[in-house]
């Protein structure tokens, strides 16, 4: 698995700004210096994770100096330890929120419920210190991945909120934050179907230690353990995509259930057939867009669009930018502002 090197570049310059030997940290992570600030490069997630973990430990701060108040090393593990003792995800999140409110003043959190949806909201107390939004992104990734892991399911996100404008590397968000992106919001956070709050916690102290050992690598990849119908359907749609995505009746039959049952199960998981179909198409399109030799018309055709104009509108809805702008961003990633 890989991640955009824009994250490596930002963490590297953050280490420099904090007076650390960033070059030595790169060497220990097995990363070449040319990977920093070079447009379009991607870095292996395990190496990026090693660098980030080393940065946190050197600063003795899980917030990496991006907040006025430190988050002590071990805070995330302690939160996980308390969360696994709760009966449901909803209670686990509330316990985590209470714990963080006692340990640090770096940010404030809130769990809201409205209608069929729940929102986990973060408000940084000193957002000016998080100039490149690293802490905001880490918060979103960490709490989403942990929530999904706690219940051994894919926590399907409905909307993700960012309290800043769409960044130039927004295309990476399709992988890191799958769902509808809302920029320039009053807070950062994510929204999901409230049914997930009632899911039972399925993890133990042993599995928590294994999860934490893989942090922060697991933050930069989508959750891998999933037993939901939406996960099974996504696997089916990916497999069928080259020959054309099947209609919902055919998909339901393949999954050995009626159309009505499939619709109900997907609704219970906070998603729909159309949303998953769009997700599969988007992921395939984003992956193909990284190859400059692949024409936009070929990408459109590969994901089931005969009209490039229709594909362009759909792609902008998925990622926030049109296909040509997305590809231009890959070829011309700006230097990271670390001043």
TrEMBL record:
SUPFAM superfamilies: Homeodomain-like. It comes from Emcibacter nanhaiensis. One of its GO terms (cellular component) is cytosol. Keywords: DNA-binding, Transcription, Transcription regulation. It comes from the Bacteria. InterPro entries: AraC-type_N, Homeodomain-like_sf, HTH_AraC, Tscrpt_reg_AraC-type_HTH. This is AraC family transcriptional regulator. GO terms for molecular function: DNA-binding transcription factor activity; transcription cis-regulatory region binding. The keyword DNA-binding applies. PROSITE patterns: HTH_ARAC_FAMILY_2 (PS01124). Residues 231-329 form the HTH araC/xylS-type domain.
């Amino acid at each position: 698995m890989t991640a955009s090197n824009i994250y490596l570049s930002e963490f590297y310059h953050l280490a420099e700004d904090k007076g650390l030997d960033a070059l030595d940290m790169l060497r220990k992570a097995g990363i070449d210096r040319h990977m920093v600030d070079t447009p379009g490069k991607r870095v292996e997630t395990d190496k990026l994770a090693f660098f980030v973990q080393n940065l946190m430990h050197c600063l003795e701060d899980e917030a990496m100096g991006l907040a006025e108040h430190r988050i002590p090393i071990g805070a995330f593990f302690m939160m996980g330890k308390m969360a696994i003792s709760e009966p449901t995800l909803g209670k686990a999140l509330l316990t985590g929120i209470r714990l963080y409110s006692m340990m640090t003043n770096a940010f404030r959190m809130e769990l809201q419920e409205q209608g069929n949806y729940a929102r986990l909201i973060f408000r940084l107390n000193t957002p000016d210190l998080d100039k490149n939004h690293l802490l905001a992104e880490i918060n979103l990734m960490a709490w989403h991945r942990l929530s999904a892991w706690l219940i051994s399911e894919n926590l399907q996100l409905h909307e993700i909120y960012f309290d800043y404008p769409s960044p130039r590397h927004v295309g990476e968000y399709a992988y890191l934050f799958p769902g509808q992106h809302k920029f320039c919001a009053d807070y950062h956070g994510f929204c999901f179907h409230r049914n997930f709050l009632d899911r039972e916690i399925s993890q133990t102290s042993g599995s928590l230690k294994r999860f934490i050992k893989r942090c922060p690598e697991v933050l930069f990849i989508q959750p891998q353990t999933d037993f939901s119908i939406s996960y099974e359907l996504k696997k089916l749609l990916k497999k069928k995509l080259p020959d054309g995505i099947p209609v919902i009746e055919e998909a339901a039959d393949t999954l050995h259930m009626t159309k009505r049952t499939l619709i109900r199960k997907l609704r219970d998981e906070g998603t729909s057939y159309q949303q998953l179909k769009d997700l599969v198409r988007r992921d395939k399109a984003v992956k193909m867009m990284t190859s400059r030799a692949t024409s936009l018309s070929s990408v459109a055709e590969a994901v089931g669009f005969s009209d490039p104009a229709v594909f362009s509108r759909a792609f902008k809805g998925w990622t926030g930018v049109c296909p040509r702008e997305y590809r231009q961003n890959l070829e011309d990633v700006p230097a990271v502002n670390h001043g």
